[in-house]
Amino acid sequence: MRNINIEHRERLSKLDKIAIFVTHHVGTMGFFLIIFVWTISWLSWNIFASPEARFDPYPAFVLWLFISNMIQILLMPLIMVGQNLQGRHAEARTEAELDINIKAEREIEVIVQHLENQGDLILKVLNRLEKEK
After folding, report:
1. Which of 30, 46, 56, 82 could be 19's S-S partner, Cβ–Cβ 3.0 to 4.6 Å?
2. CB-based contact 42:56 (threshold 8 Å)
């Protein structure tokens, strides 16, 4: 029997593995908290620090907006690639499950046929026994 998960993993290139890694980790609360803390720290520093210590002037926050947009622009297509790879994996798993279900159905049909044949034999034996009494 083949293992779809292993086959899928073996077919992935290094770039595919990176895309899946990013897709798995960007959608977590940990990543959200990192971005949230970074944003609050950045904005707080540039609002409340002394004017000499500020590096991204309030209220424009040009550097923060630029970095935030770069993160979004780079992550968006990378996440889409990862989702496409995950979709292909899900389709392969579904096909493998369908194959297994079809095989199981065939085996069950054979077992039912054998049981029906056995039932006929048992009825014949019981009929003979009743006639002999």
Report:
1. 82
2. yes
Both tokens of 45, joined, read 């520093």
Specify whether the CB–CB gap between 22 and 82 falls below 8 A. Answer: yes
Q: Which tokens is 53 given?
A: 């210590």
pTM of the model: 0.68
pLDDT of residue 16: 95
Q: Which residue has the higher pLDDT, 45 or 121?
A: 45
Q: What is the DSSP letter of 52?
A: T
Q: Rounded distance, CA 84 to CA 71, Å?
A: 20
- CA distances to 27, 28, 69, 112 from 73, rounded to whole Å, are 16, 18, 6, 58
pLDDT one-digit tens code per residue, 115-132:
887 877 888 888 888 888
In sequence order, what E strands does the chain have?
Answer: none
